[in-house]
Amino acid sequence: MDKKTFIEKMAFSSDMKDIDPALFPNLYNKIMMAEKTGKTVCSSEFYPPNIWSNLIMMDSYFDVSFSTYGIFDNSERRVIGIGKGDFGDFPVKLLKVKTNTKFAAIGHKDYLGSIMSLGIIREKFGDLILGEDACYAAVYDDVADYLMNNLTKIRNSPCTVEVIDPDCEEKPKRRFEFMHITATSLRLDCVTASICNVSRAKSDELIRQGKVLVNYSAAYKRDLEVDSDDIIVIRGYGKFIFNAVKGSTGSGRLKIELKKFI
Question: Nearest Cα to 254, choosing from 200, 190, 193, 183?
């Protein structure tokens, strides 16, 4: 596949919100390097799910395979490995950023803002997961030392930064809350309307605008039927896992159980 076709396919199948267009040609060049040399190549940045998931579905077009890694289970942002054999270790470290949260409410956006205020672009670090008294961050190797030496506070609270084992037991897991809705069918527009508590017309608008993703790909067909374990992302409303249909109401509406990422 030539570069132009690759870029067009990736741009067409990906939700382009907040994506630097330069990522596509850079990624294509990495693929060509891996094909030519036979060596494993890693992306120089973390990619959002609408990029890496679509790339994996395109592996039949290339003489290499793809692997992704983001440290955490169900990571959204991941580094992409490209090669023909063993992918080995990915150039990623896990940082623990510990603050004194007893006197200030510090959230995800505070950690994110403090890291980016140091001039680090968003593509150089992956998911940020909050633990009881710290934030755990997947970061690219080439910015880990800089963060440890320069990230000294989150908002007005002093912090410490250390590298920890990505397989350690203290690494936090994603947290969910169960959510129950009813819908007339498993069509995407019906499920979206129930999740967001909006009209079908409003859910159709969200789908048309590319704001509804199923398994990290923008879903533009309102009659698409969702299934167990599908991941549904609705921009402005949250991220959900379709868990199961738990029966029906007396009027015939489906009782649906979801897990919402928190």
Answer: 183
Q: How far apart are the first and last CA of the chain?
A: 40
pTM of the model: 0.75
So what's the architecture of 176-261 in CATH? Roll (3.10)
In the chain, where are the structural domains located? Answer: 3-83, 92-164, 176-261
Tell me the two tokens of residue 155. 């908002």
Q: How far is CA 58 from CA 5, 7, 28, 62, 206, in A?
A: 12, 12, 12, 8, 26
pLDDT tens figures, 125-180: 999 998 878 899 999 999 999 999 999 999 888 999 999 999 888 888 878 899 99
Question: What is 96-128 written as a DSSP string?
Answer: EEEE--SSS---HHHHHHHHHTTT--GGGEEEE
92-164 maps to which CATH number?
3.30.70.330
